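User: For a benchmark we're assembling, each entry needs the component sequences followed by a predicted structure for the full assembly. Here are entry 17's components. Please fill in the structure.
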Amino acid sequence: MLNFAIETARDAGGILLEKFGRKIKISKKGDIDLVTEADLASEALILERIRSHYPKHSILAEESGAASVAGGDATWKWIIDPLDGTTNFAHNYPCFCVTIALEHNGEVVVGVTYDPTRNELFAAEKGGGATLNGKPIRVSDIDKLGDSLLVTGFPYDIKNRKEPARHLHELLMLSRGVRRDGSAAIDLAYVACGRFEGFWEEGLNPWDVAAGTLLVKEAGGQTSYFDGSKLDIYRPPLVATNGLIHDQMIAVLK
Ligand code: IPD
Ligand code: CA
Ligand code: CA
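Assistant: Structure for entry 17:
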């Protein structure tokens, strides 16, 4: 099923790349929340593939919601974001991906994030480690927040929230720098491969983080809520780190 997820993410990423930089249809789901014809085309391909290979599995996909199959096997669930980084995509900013996870009995067992602009495929299987284009990856070994490069993101309802600005200010003062790249799934993959030491964000959805949290764990990192307690991917916020700076970030976020 890992290979199926990899192939599907690569093909969906191909669709995104074909449409990237072209004039495409963009609609608004909310004040600043967009959906493009690329999100819909990528999701259609992924759903069609899952339905033909695993017709009994349940699906949770960002643009079409939850789908369970009558008489199907609800213990398996695919969690999909067909285009993570839609705002970037709509502005021709080349930082976006396809991210696909598979849950079994409520636990993520496969996670794949594919960035088609850099041809980077991050993959993880529970207990099997994490890879980038087939090569094993590990989180970084930096153990001081002051030497760390961090990344965050802001939810679409940011105008109603106060904490993100406080957290951003404090972590900017305490770290080497903070980036905001606009794709939570890529942010998590970059923690997994050691490009960032830590990521935090509130207001995310399960499809933003399902694959990425497995990547981080399988690469030796740590994920939790802002107070350090066990994360439920259906109810983010979350903080994900290389493990070594986890407590130092929690001290600011909690
Ligand atoms: C968004 C991106 C972004 C994050 C937002 C997400 P979308 O997903 O992951 O980085 O800050 O909270 O909703 O809408 O591009 O799929
Ligand atoms: Ca997303
Ligand atoms: Ca999306």
